[in-house]
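User: Here's a protein and a ligand (adenosine-5'-triphosphate). What would the complex look like?
Assistant: Let me lay out the input and then the predicted complex.
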Amino acid sequence: MGKLQVLHIGLDDTDSKDGMCTTYVGAVVVDRLIDIGAKIIDYPHLIRLNPNWILKTRGNCAIAIKVEAKDELIPSIKKMVLKTVEQLAELDHETTNPGVVFLKGENIPEELGAFSRKVIQDIVTIDEAEELAKRIGAEFFKFKIGRGIIGALAAIGEELEQDFTYELIAYRLPSNRGKERKIDRESVFKMNELTYPDTFDNIDLNTGEIRITPHTPCPILYGIRAESSWIAEKAHGMVKAFEPIERWVIYKANQATDEHIKSSKISEVKPYRSFVVEGEVCDKPRIIVGGHVIFTIKDDGDKIDCAAYEPTRKFREVIMKLAIGDIVKVYGGIKPKPNLPLTINLEKIEVVKLSPIFKKLNPICPLCRRRMKSAGKEKGFVCKNCKQKLPRETVIIGEMPRSITVGIYEVPPRARRHLAKPLVRLSPRIW
Ligand code: ATP
């Protein structure tokens, strides 16, 4: 009898805009692993990578599964995984370039952990991934150009030891994919009422949109994000679907953790990455064509534009209330656009300090207590009632109340990135 081995399996880049999803390939691999007698350790991991990466298909995710199996079972596990990817991946699409990585042993090398952080926050090359795999003794398989080995390695390297969430994903029958999703809306509202905030981003309450169902032709019927696996499963039991569920899986994920965000000065921000930057509002928020709201912040002499785009709806109203001199921390990604300055696409904003806004007010008439009127340019004030006059110097400088308070504000669920941490997750939990 062979001894038990731990094997990490990483998968990525199996889908195209027309269909499939790497989470589905992962779910099929999980079921087949169970069928062939491998023991799955922990939940499979769903790792979201850099959301600003230009070559992603949709949500830039990769999957890692950790198994324990007897030595003699390892070759058939590897064979099954590669066969599943070959069978399910959209290989006819030029942009689908799957990668599979196998890493033996319990421990994740430190270097691999650092690589994962880089793929989540930055950009790496296929060569970098290949060299790392060779150095740490990971076996990799490239389909076509095999760009997927980047995500596959990164998924193995993110051990989810700090912040993490869960997502239960239910999949559709192949015959239903591409058709309208049939879900009982009321059941989703009820589920949200009973499980929020232990499940989150189920509904956008401002627009009434159901957020658990995607709008793409992928195999996903719905996904429920949750703080624990058992809440996810309970919520799944509350959602009524009017079409069969082919299979479902619970992933442990780095979703809703802000793992993509790096703290930075304005001078250090780079396109295709996400940052949190503290600065002073130096240009009043303005609405531009398309309903987007733009304002500018500065730190140490550098400036950068920040944008709340139209889909963020009411969040833009918060931004419009900012004033020059306010101190804010802005969270968001940067995707350069031709002929436009670098702009942080806001996911969240913390208003750290409000600057006082002063306004000149006419004085009150000392005789009849009514507010006086201007007596003409540079002529002081006059009371329309009793004709009392006061000189220009009696003008009152008053501090105006602000219509925004110090605190953190976020975009609504409909505009939220998979990695963005919702405010409801920032508050402490009582279990
Ligand atoms: P799915 O959600 O089904 O996995 P996707 O949106 O994740 O689709 P992919 O089809 O996986 O997109 O394409 C992303 C490709 O880019 C993968 O090959 C992945 O390895 C690679 N990749 C992801 N993040 C980075 C990054 N930060 N730097 C370089 N390459 C990356």
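Summary: The chain has eight helices and 23 strands.
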